Each structure stands twice: as structure tokens, then as C-alpha cells.
Amino acid sequence: MKLVIKFGGTSISSPENIRSVAKYVRSLSKGNELVIVCSAVSGVTDDLIRIANLVQKGNKDSADRLSKAIINKHKQLAKKLIKNVKTRKKLSEKMNSDLSDLEGLLHGMFLLGEVTSRSSDYLISFGERLSINLVSFALVDLGSKSVPLTGKESGIVTDSNFGEAKLLSDTTRLRVSKTLQKYISRRTIPVIGGFAGADQHGNITTFGRGGSDYTATIIASCIKADEVWLMSDVDGLMTADPKTVSAAKVIKEVSYTEAMEMALFGAKQIHPRAFEPLLERKIPLRIRSTFNTKNEGTLVTGHLRPETKKTVKCVSVIRHNGLIDVRGGSMVGAPGTAATIFSTLAKAGVNIMMISQSPSESTISIIVKKNDLDRAVNTLELNLLGKIIKKVDVTADVAIVALVGSGMRGTVGVASKIFSAAARKEVNVIMIAQGSSELNLAFVVKDSDCQDVVRSLHSEFNLGK
Ligand code: ASP
Ligand code: MG
Predict the structure, then answer these.
(1) Which atom of ligand 1 is nearest to the CA of 212?
(2) Which of 28, 91, 349, 393 has the maximum number of C-beta atoms within 10 A of its C-beta?
(3) Separation of 42 CA from ligand 2 center, angstroms?
(4) Could you tell me the distance, in angstroms and rounded to a whole number, from the CA of residue 445 to the centre of ligand 2?
């Protein structure tokens, strides 16, 4: 099989972990053609972002301290990882050359005391630029042939939208397939840094947090891989959060659309665009654990087998949100009311998570993150109260409970089952939303009620069986 395997940051967070990743990859390389994609070592991207913020604030000393810690961390990892003396020396040379580029960049940023979106992307791309050296040389240490490649070196080309770059897929396809084919045919395992690419002028760009998943699926589509595996520290997509529901199980099989819905809620956060590159060729994706490789994980596929089409596949919850109820008689039959409310919130930088409007059009309910709540209420009161809205009511701590499953579509009685289960727990349902795709049904309860409801729904739909 032609496989693209991506390892998350916790999978490569210590010399022991990196070595066991390398052993696992080597064992798979016997019968398969492999391309490896890596995240940064866990915590490193966060630290690099912190450095950028410190430089911006003019806090040079703290930035300097933090960057020394990152440099030292990678030097230590490199030193402890490799047994063979020659290989260790080669790795240390490669590391030092990359680290001196990082130091040069930091020096420049300190001097200017300025962080642009371009320099910030270049800075935060270093997590992956460094981690690939560790994984690739660990493979060499075991006797495999391997090469570390940054996203740019592998041929990933994007627009110049730093921080949220968009892929230029035609150019990327040509370049990546050409670069990687060369290595694959020589049985050399490419270890590619996720998260980053370069624009057409060669500037480093990134895909946004969690972007290594996206890199993996981009690469898979470019080389027409048979499967992509996302290896992290969770066993797969779960029927519920195991911390809330002890009977929660790994879900065996989901469709791309189900997985997209679940990725937004579940424990395993997947980059939202990561599914896109797989759709055309319907390349299967597996979500698996590095620490439990016997477990098959969750298969995400374009062809769901009929026996895996359940009405509801998982119950998840997003806790600690704020609910805003906006009322006013003059909202009724007035085109543009909703648009005005939403654009007012957008201007204040508030992200809306869920909405519902009564058919009388006299109330609109809006869910926002708790951190955004005060800002949202202030801006609505300041700009719209007494004009198009009469009253703003706020409920501070609510939870969204969401059920996902493509089998809900057209199945009669699902909603009644859901709300009966809530009623049996004497939980009040504050708000409900279901898209017409019927793939996801979400409702809002008081945060203190959410765990009871989740447990009760999990057993109502037999998800632990
Ligand atoms: N290292 C990047 C991040 O932490 C990308 C990734 O891990 O997928 O967001
Ligand atoms: Mg990560």
C-alpha cells in the first residue's frame, strides 16, 4: 500500500517516543511505500507563538529565554536520540544549521521589535522544520533510508495569506508528486514537516493551528495514496467523551461529512480543511493512536457500508458558552434584521456558534463562547438597543449537546427519542437547532445539566454496545 502517516506532537515528545515511532515506521516500510508527516514536538508551536507575542510587546528578555529553551530542548532530544556516532554527528550538524537560521530570524525580529504576519509564519514554522530532523535521523539510525523535507521543500505551494494560507493545488500536485516519487522509487522515506508551505515568492506560509493534518491529506492526494493515517494520542473518534461516559467506545467507521461534524466537537480536533483533499479520490483516512497501534482506530471513508449507517453515532458537548436572546417587535417582517445583528457581532470579532429564530421572527437566540459574551452583549446594546431590538437577555453558562449521524436523515422519531431522554432527566432544553441536512442535531441546556443528558443519550441510542 501507498501510505501517508502523520504523527502528532505528543507522539514525538521524547527520545523514547521518537524511537518507537521510528521502529513502527520501519516495520511498516517492509511491505508498503511510506511518506511520513510530522507535527512540531508537543508544546513547541505554542512556545513559538508566545515568543512572537513577547517580541511584539517589547519583552525581549522573556522572548530570549523562551527561545533558548526551545533550542536547548531540540539539542537535547537530538543528543539522546541517536545511538550511531556518525548519524548523531550528522543530525547535530543539520540541527545546528536549522537552529542558526532560527537564531538569525529571532535576532532580526528582536532588532526591529516588530512581528509581521509574514515573519510570524516563518517563526512558527520552525517547530516542524526541527522535528522532522529528529524523526528522519531516528529512521536512519535504525538502518532505513530517509530524508527530512519541510513543506516548502516537498513542494507545497500556497497563496500569500499568512496564518491561514490557501493551497494552490495544481502547482502543488505537480511539485509534490515529482519530489516524492524520486524518493519513493529509491526506497527513501520522506519525513515531511506539516503545517507550512511557501507562497510563489518562496515566503513560508502556514495553514493555521492543527495544519499538519491538512498537510498529510494534501500529500496523500498528490501522490494518490491508498490511505492516510493520523496518529495521535487518542484511539479514534469516540461515541462520547470517555471522561463523561465510561461506556464510550471508539467509532469504527464514519463518513467524511460525519467526521467533519465530529471533528468540531470531539476530543480529537482535526483541521477543518483536512478532509477536502480526500474527497475527489475518496482516499480513506484512519484516526489511530501511536501508543496503541494494535487498535484499528476510526476509519473515515467516502463509501459507508450499509451496516455502519447508524442513526446516531456520537453525542458530544461543547461546554461553557453564553446564550443571548434578542427580542423586539420591530424585528418582525423587517428584512435585514438578522444581517444587522450578525454583522454588528462580526465587527466586534465575535464568532457565532449556533443560532435559531422563532418563526414569529420576534426573537433570535445566539450562542457564543463565554469569553466573547460580554463583548457581544455590549456591542449589541451599544449599537442596536432601542433601535431594531427592544431587549437583550443573557444566560451565562450553557452547554451545546450535539448528536451526529447520517442515519438521522429521514428517520422518524429521532428527535422525540432525544427530547424524551432529556425530559426523563428533568433537564430543560433551552434552544434547538437542526440543519436540513439532518446530519447533526444540537440543543442547548444549562451547563450543570449537560453531563447527565449526555450519559442518558449515550445509553438511549445504545452507543456503548
Ligand atoms: N504544530 C502545529 C500546531 O500545533 C500544527 C499541527 O500540530 O498540526 O498547530
Ligand atoms: Mg499539533
Answers:
(1) 8
(2) 91
(3) 7
(4) 31
For residue 340, the Cα-to-chain-centroid distance in whole angstroms is: 31
Structure pTM? 0.89
Q: What is the CATH number of domain 2-233?
A: 3.40.1160.10
For 365-374, b/e burial (b = at least 16 CB within 10 A) is bbbbeeebbe
Nine cell digits for residue 296:
484499528
Tens digit of pLDDT for each residue in 361-378?
A: 889 999 999 999 999 999
Grid coordinates in use for 47? 512556545
Q: Under a CB-based contact definition with an 8 Å cutoff, are residues 379 and 412 in contact?
A: no
CA of 236 to the centre of ligand 2 (A): 16
Distance 194 CA to ligand 1 centre (A): 8
Every domain of the chain with CATH number 3.30.2130.10 lies at: 314-460
Cell of 273: 480543511
Residues in the ligand 1 pocket, defined by CB under 6 Å: 9, 39-40, 45, 127, 194-195, 209-213
The residue with cell 476530543 is 267
- Cell match 423587517: residue? 334
Ligand 1 mean position, distance from CA 212 (Å):
6
Q: Rounded to the nearest 5 degrees, what angle is found at the Cα of 36, between the Cα atoms of 94 and 142?
A: 65
What is the pLDDT, as a whole number, of residue 265? 67
Tell which residue, 331, 370, 328, has the closest CA to residue 351.
Answer: 370
Q: Which residues of the chain have pLDDT under 50?
A: none
Q: Which CATH superfamily is domain 314-460 in?
A: VC0802-like (3.30.2130.10)
Give how far Cα 4 sits from Cα of 211, 227, 231, Å.
15, 7, 11
Please list the residues that pair with 115 across neighbouring strands: none
Sequence ranges of the chain with CATH classification 3.40.1160.10: 2-233
For residues 352 and 349, give the distance between their C-alpha atoms in angstroms, rounded to a whole number: 10
Alpha-carbon dihedral sign for residues 19, 25, 29, 31:
positive
pLDDT digits (tens, 9 = 90+) for 411-454: 888 989 999 999 999 999 999 988 777 788 999 999 999 999 99
Counting ligands in written order, the one closest to the CA of 270 is: 1
Which pLDDT score is estimated for 303?
Answer: 83
Reported as half-sphere exposure (CB side, CA atoms, 13 A), residue 454 has a value of 28
Q: Whose CA is nearest to atom 8 of ligand 1?
A: 210
